[in-house]
Amino acid sequence: MKLRFASLSLLALGLMLAAVPAAAQVVYSNGPTNGNLYAWNINSGFVVSDTFNVNNAFDFAVVQGASFSMWLHPGDVLYSAELSITSSENGGTSYFDQEVNFNSTSCQANQYGFNVCTETAYFYDYNALSNGTYWVNLKNASVTNGDPVYWDENFGGPSSTALGQSLASQNSVGTIPSEAFTISGYAGFAPNSTTTTGTVPELGSIMLFGSGVLALAGMLRRKLF
Length: 225
Hints:
disordered C terminus, 18% helix, 8-stranded antiparallel β-sheet, alpha+beta
């Protein structure tokens, strides 16, 4: 009976550890929603790009999601958009490029008759970004009735997590003021304090985690027997 109980307990421990993802952190924030200034179209062939920084206090950051402030026509729902992370303004080396789905919250009407909503996407990109500056690009937004959808301009409002205001551009006009967004994920130190842009954390960090799990399992086994 004890043997069966111990085996089931160890199995449950393993399943719990496998099921719990890393806690999301704010990797970069470009400030809060403005909502009443201006906004830029991210469908109908338009592309809006903003820079974000990986904090140099860490060796790498793994992006797991992002939130954007969007202007929508009343009754419209933003379904998805193409989101990419690149080394240059809508170009250069691509670290991520996928159609992502959005969840809409905190919608409020502004003075122009639009609903200004926080649109959040989780996409679990496991490419590790080393210290530096990257571009997040939005285009090909899919919205109810094919209406335009706009990314809120906020001039990189005050934010304790932003390392300086983002640079920004729109593909038809060039340089523009920056937009309201937050990049989330987790950050950390590589085992040897070195990383390569676009690679996952080194195997040593995974082995270290695994050895901790085995040690915990051994303690549980000794306690049960």
